[in-house]
Amino acid sequence: MDQSIKAGILGAIVAIFANFIIIPPPFDFIPTFVVAIFAIFVFRLATLRDGLVAAFMTYLFSQAILSTLTLADYYASNTIYTLTVTADLIPDPIITAISALIAAYIGVWLVTKGRPPPPKAPAPPQSTDIPPELQTV
Fold it and tell me: Which of 69, 88, 98, 134 could share a disulfide with 25, CB 3.0–4.6 Å?
């Protein structure tokens, strides 16, 4: 779990810088999506639970910090913040949550795909009730 938290924090920091690329609202999740996959892959998170923690931390922290910076910019410039509800704004939280799930799944899939299969353990010796002096092999 510790590695997934580190991956989420690293992903959030990188996603903040990646989100300065201007992308229109229906597709504004793409930089964070790519960064979440990258963070999961770099930290080699092999379980879906750890991948989900890292992906959702990346999304949550980056969106919270970017929203805070946006509101701070409005406050510093003494501009009134007006929110206009459009058709693009309504599905945005749903798209963000679904893309975080997909990013976690893809990131974990990439990690497990590149990892060789675990070696098979040798079979334990079978116990018999025949005394050793009577066994012939």
Answer: 88
Question: pLDDT tier at 110 (50, 70, 90 boundaries)?
Answer: very high
pTM check: above 0.70: yes
| DSSP notation for the chain | -HHHHHHHHHHHHHHHHHTTS---GGGTTHHHHHHHHHHHHHTT--SHHHHHHHHHHHHHHHHHHHHHHHHHHHHHTT--------TTTSSHHHHHHHHHHHHHHHHHHHHHHHSPPPPPPPPPPPP-SS-GGG---
Number of domains in the chain: 1
Higher pLDDT, 41 or 25: 41
